[in-house]
Design a protein that fits this description.
Length: 345
């Protein structure tokens, strides 16, 4: 069975021709799904009844089901638990700001990276998400909220660059002007630092916003927080980021979670300045969102502000990420993990 919303325009056109139909029918189906938001073949009334029946016999438009929605009482954040066709559950987070709204989506079912402070790794890894499962996180939330999301961040559950082909296929489809038409510059991909794939992103010329989960400027200490540090050093990651910038012209952001008495002293800010000075980059400070599996606290507001001031004073463009959805378990993977535990009990 074909999954029509997992197929590119070219793939749909080729398939329709193979079935003895006109090539333009593929474009009608593609635009119906991705531009008009149609999720049922029966609703494609610009197609003949016989073609609609043929499409239903040979394939489907696969949809995610929204199982639960949690709305924050502190801000406009909404967290969605969605079910895939095979019964796996994922999460997506809708965040509303004064100037725009953003959806944080998942790229895998579970995560193999093992970062000690991240809830995403606490449940077993399942599989990579298909293109349509990433697309439909956006489409399902659009339909539920009666909105149009124009910014997406691949910062949810999973390491996007471990799912390179599906993730880049998703980027191509969501930014296709013949389909949804999201600006490629409104797409952010966050990675732990899979060095070969960062180079490949540059070689393939994806001018997206690239964010590196750094979290510690010292290799030996970073290895304890992020096991991927045993495979790729910070210096190797920075070299790959330089290449990405050269090929795409897009500056790289570095994500830095501030953990009390772990990585928030002057020693760390000084080292970060040494690493980042002279690079066209941005540093995003993230006060730790605590999880029960990691017995550490977020840095104090005073420590966060001092870190921020030092970095900006020394020429590193730095911002502090505002905490969102704290009352609905806003940390990546928290809600999904608790949902799975409740279902098991």
């Amino acid at each position: 069975m074909e999954i029509y919303n997992n197929m590119s325009l070219l793939e749909l056109e080729k398939k329709l021709v193979q079935w003895g139909e006109k090539k333009f029918r593929g474009r009608q189906i593609y635009e119906g799904i991705h531009k008009q938001g149609i999720s049922s073949i029966d609703d494609m009334t610009n197609l003949s009844k016989s073609l609609r029946e043929k499409l239903k016999e040979r394939g489907t438009i696969a949809k995610l089901e929204i199982l639960e929605v949690f709305s924050s009482k502190l801000d406009d954040t909404k967290k969605f638990i969605l079910e895939c066709k095979d019964g796996n559950v994922i999460e997506a987070v809708y965040m509303k700001y004064s100037s725009h709204s953003t959806l944080c989506i998942s790229s895998q079912i579970g995560c193999k990276m093992g970062c000690v402070f991240c809830a995403s790794t606490k449940e077993r890894f399942g599989r990579n998400l298909e293109k349509h499962e990433m697309l439909d996180q956006i489409y399902a939330v659009n339909e539920y909220l009666n909105t149009r999301i124009d910014n997406v961040v691949l910062m949810g559950i999973g390491e996007p660059l471990e799912n390179y082909d599906n993730v880049t296929g998703f980027i191509e489809m969501i930014s296709d002007e013949k389909g949804y038409g999201m600006s490629i510059r409104s797409i952010t991909l966050s990675t732990c630092g899979i060095v070969p794939k960062i180079y490949q992103l540059g070689e393939d010329h994806f001018p997206i916003n690239l964010a590196i989960s750094l979290h510690n400027p010292f290799n030996e200490e970073r290895k304890k927080l992020m096991p991927i540090g045993k495979k790729y050093s910070i210096e190797e990651i920075l070299d790959a980021c330089d290449y990405f910038f050269k090929e795409t012209g897009r500056r790289v952001s570095f994500e830095y979670t501030l953990i009390q008495d772990e990585n928030d002293s002057l020693k760390y800010s000084k080292k970060l300045v040494q690493l980042l000075r002279g690079r066209n980059c941005h540093l995003n400070l993230i006060p730790l969102n605590p999880i029960k599996e990691y017995d550490r606290s977020s840095s104090s507001e005073k420590s966060v502000q001092e870190f921020y001031n030092y970095m900006n004073k020394h020429g590193i463009t730095t911002t502090i990420r505002r905490k969102q959805g704290q009352d609905i378990e806003g940390a990546c993977g928290q809600l999904r993990a608790n949902y799975i535990r409740e279902e098991r009990s």
